[in-house]
Fold thiosulfate sulfurtransferase.
Amino acid sequence: MTTATRTTETALAALTTLEALREPGILETRALIEVAREVDATVPSVATLRLGLDDLVGEEGPLTGHRPLPNHARITSTLTSAGVTADTPVVVYAATPRDLSSAARAWLVLRWAGVHSVTFLNGAYADDVAALPRPAAATTPDATSLAAEFRIDESTVVDAEAVAGRAPDVVLIDARRADDFGDETQHIPGAINLPNAALSLSERVPDPVALASAYREHGVEPTAQPILLSCGGGVAASVQSLALASLGIDAPVYVGSWSEWEKLHL
């Protein structure tokens, strides 16, 4: 079971800023991935790759949630077609403020798919990225990098069995709105309801002090308790996984979430 261990390296790697991207040599070595719920191809973009929510989910099956993980071969093929390898440092950003949850899902999926370095551009969007000074020429990955194999990182997610068998000290957070969380027939037994809005996770990730304080106000000590995350289909929960990573906390997502749990009759 993944525990809530604080690691400075994780905290530094989770988020980045426009100011950091302006540093000399940074943009030349990074792939920019723009994410929207729905990609509008008529709007120009400076991104290396643009992804919509449909690119980040697989086909729903009789025993899966509404938004399962995508086919690994398909998502990695999309990445390599854009010149992104497992060793390419990637910066994910939301096209607009309303695309935070889709972009957080991309952050989760790319890490799960095997991209070694994925950071999230916090509080900046497509227009802000377009205004960044463009590098004279992007660095082309060398042969070793191109050959790097995408290996699934299972530590980023958990399945229904792991949720059902979680230890007593593990906190299972359901990130849905209160009316979706409902009564005991509408959520996983033992889950606590902590919607993203209650943590001010609507357009960006708050600063670490405010975020940790918000969790504590809702009875969760993020640096001391192991945390698993769920929602309806693994999208809203991805936002909290990203937010907790900014605190240096690994909080895996149960991607199937309630929509899968309900089908499994657990």
User: Anything to note?
Assistant: The radius of gyration is 18 Å. Strands lie at 15-16, 31-36, 49-52, 90-94, 118-121, 157-158, 171-174, 192-193, 227-230, 253-254.
